[in-house]
Amino acid sequence: DIQMTQSPSSLSASVGDRVIITCRASQGISTYLAWFQQKPGKAPRSLIYAASSLQSGVPSKFSGSGSGTDFTLTISNLQPEDFATYYCQQYNSYPPKFGQGTKVEIK
Amino acid sequence: EVQLVQSGAEVKKPGESLKISCKGSGYSFASYVIGWVRQMPGRGLEWMGIIYPSDSDTRYSPSFQGQVTISADKSIGTAYLQWSSLKASDTAMYYCASLSGTTGNFDYWGQGTLVTVSS
User: Which of B6, B51, B103 to substitute to test the interface with A, most A CBs within 10 Å?
Assistant: First the structure.
């Protein structure tokens, strides 16, 4: 199975900051990488697919990059509604696998 | 609009059986893979398995093989997740998700079903 490792596991940031979350796959997954946002008590919401493609309706403050084994999610101009847990997920091969999550908290 | 609507919260005792459901609408249910995801309290997301509703071909993640059964009835657009003998460690939120033909990933999610197993 492919393992996904996210870092950091949590971070504190201020409104207006830019944050970067990284995700590393244990083997190459091309660009079969998605990013999800989850708020407490809610289902995950897909933000980015194919490593860098923005889901319909997702603001352009979210951006993704990378291919192969190393990926990043960047959130610009952090707003109160962005404080949540973010997960990467590979879908190159079965079973799909999530990273352990990165909790973005208010400083 | 694609929608996945899951059955309501359940409270069960250890050893009891349970079957929860996920009903799809707004798209061709039989055409797209449905997956199930577990989230234990305060923990991350784990894929349990997937099913192809067109022929009910099922694949389980190794950790869940033999622990649960995934099924689907394409005639009513519904997928199921069931346990024959629940354990306290099955206490979790369970989500279903549907593959998107546009992105190739699981873009559509149900609202979740909370399963609590306690004596």
Answer: B103
